[in-house]
Every structure is written in C-alpha cells, then in structure tokens.
Amino acid sequence: MKTIFICLFILLTQRSFGQSPLLKDQFSFPLGASMNPRLLQENEAYRHLATTEFNSVTAENHMKMMMVHPEANRFDFSKGDELLQFAKSNQKRMHGHTLVWHNQVPKWMNEFSGDAQAWEALLKNHVQEVAKHYQGQVSGWDVVNEAFLDDGSLRPSIWVKNIPDYIAKSFQWAHEADPNAILFYNDYGQDGKPQKMKAILDMVQDLQARHIPIHGLGLQMHINISSNNAEIQRVIQQSSSTGLIIHFSELDIAVNPKNDSTFVYNETAKEAQKQKFKFIFDAYAGIPKPQQYGITFWNIGDRDSWLRGYFKRPKEYPLLFDDAYAPKPAYFYLTNTRKNEK
Ligand code: 9MR
Fold first, then answer.
1. Cα–Cα 20 to 30 A to 206, which of 16, 89, 189, 257?
2. In the predicted structure, residue 10 carries a pLDDT above the cut 50
3. Who's near 221: CB < 8 A, 6+ residues apart?
4. Which of 195, 179, 70 is nearest to 132 (CA)?
5. How many domains does the chain have?
6. pTM
7. What is the CATH number of the domain that holds 67?
8. When comparing pLDDT for 11 and 53, which is higher?
9. Span from the CA of 61 to the centroid of ligand 1 (angstroms)
10. Does any domain span residue 318?
C-alpha cells in the first residue's frame, strides 16, 4: 500500500510532458535564465519553468541604467527587486546585469553635460548606488558590457568620450561598493573576431597589472547553428586561460539567422540546434571547475526571445522551450542524456 502511495505521489508530481529530470539538477554548475518580471507575474507556464528548471536568475532588462536610474536624482529598483525576491524565495542565485553599457542609457545621462569631474561623479554614483543596493544579494555583476567593437577598438559611447579610463574605474567603484561580488566583463561575438578577442584579453592584462579587481569574463554566446565550433572553442580556451571565472551569460542558438520568411523549423533544424547545444555544454564542461560560474540562457521560451521582440525575427526559435513552453529536443538531450555530469 505504502509503495502504491509513493508511486502515485511521484507520478502526480512529475510534469505533464513526461518524466524528465529537471535541467538545473543535471549540472555541477548553476544553470540560469534571464527573466522578465511581468512574464513571471502574468504567465503561469513561464513561472513554472523559471521556478523548476533554473537555479540562477539574470534580469533581462530591469537592472540596466535606464530602468534603475530614470532620473538624475531618482533610482527605481522596484522591478529589479521583484526579480531578486523571486530568486530569493526560490533559493536561486541572482546575477547582476549590467552596471555600465552604451545601450539602454536614460535620456538624462545621454543629455548630461559637465566637465570630466562631473561625468566621473555621475558614473561613480550610478555604479555604487546600484551595487550597494544589491550588495550581498547578487553573486556577481556584469560591470561593463560590450565595450569593444569587432576591430578591437573601444566602442564609441558617452562613457569613453567623457571618462577615457571608465572600464578600470567602473570595476574599482563596483568593488568598493560590493567587495564580495564577482566582477565580470561581458561581451558577445568574439568568435571569428580575433581583434575583438585580443582587445578583451589585453584589457584583462592591463587591469590585472594595475591591480584593478576583475574576476570573470562573460561570454554571451548569442550564436547560431552555423557558428564555427573551432572558433568558439578558441574563444573559450583563450578566455579561460586568463584564469578568470567564465560565465556563458546569454546563451541562445538561432536557427534562422538570415531571417528567411519561408523558414520551417523542421526536425533537421531542431537536430542541428541540439548538436550545437551539445557542443556548447561539452565545451563548458572542459573549463576547469573552479572557473565555472554557470550557463545562463537568454530568457526561457522561444516566444520570449529578444530575437523575436527586439530584432523582429518572427521565425526564430533559439531556446529550449517552444511557443507553448513545451521542451524541445535539445532540452531532452540535456536532461536525459547528460546524466552523471556532476
Ligand atoms: O534582451 C534584451 C532586450 O529585451 C532589450 O530590448 C535589448 C536592448 O538593447 O537588450 C537585450 O539584452 C541584451 C543584453 O542586455 C546584452 N547583450 C545583448 C542582449 C541582446 O540584445
């Protein structure tokens, strides 16, 4: 009788689409997703996956400058705090994204005018207020995001224009505000862009030589099914040989990168995508354990992807869960095939 009850309990607690073990339980490193507070609140299927499948949370947008610092004298942490609360009450790690970026900058910052000292005061205040607000509650921060162009030059922005040494300063300020946070430099598309990769490595060397606290590199991993594996492997190798902690911070794998309107997401495309996810997870497993911060997907279901919304590519399916939040072949590969990864 007791056995029957136990079996019934197990059956009832399994998810409707099968007996898959959960994603987050398969790996020795944290497995995250970027999330959106509105979807968490409004969409039950989304919330269910967010709660059960992942153990690390990144705010897709709600800790960025524009969101948390809408006016010069006003911070608004309400939405970021909502995500933090979700992470906390579900025992998940919270990763901070992002303190300094050229994008999603509030209007008042873009329009600010002042001398070098005033600019420095502005950025220092932003970095430190945000880092202090979340001090001890986020495990790490993407301190500076996407500072380099493909040719390795510094990306033009209000930051580099007004505070030439803003990268080093931002890391220093963040460290002062939250001394225990793991501080990352985060960027995309280093594969196939050796000059961009070199610029990042040179920056790491320079910061380390100056005793500026940088602890990790975020490799965003916005890739596609045709991305060159050898190139990606090279980037991983070069990044991890710095000895820094490595985060695959924004993983998604586009299947229709040219936005072909006649594209059909057929079994062949799903299989190619599964193989690419396999490659990425294998490559990550090859990084020395102490340097593994985790893998974070850039949102949860295909319908939530920035490639659909921001990039307006309706026939794109870059994540593990489909438009109805059902798991796709890559999900089953990661949960069923990759046992004993721990
Ligand atoms: O996914 C984010 C999307 O909702 C925003 O509209 C967009 C604004 O630029 O930013 C997206 O997130 C980006 C992340 O913060 C940094 N790396 C690239 C991501 C995709 O654009």
1. 189
2. no
3. 188, 248, 249, 250, 251, 252, 280
4. 179
5. 1
6. 0.94
7. 3.20.20.80
8. 53
9. 7
10. yes
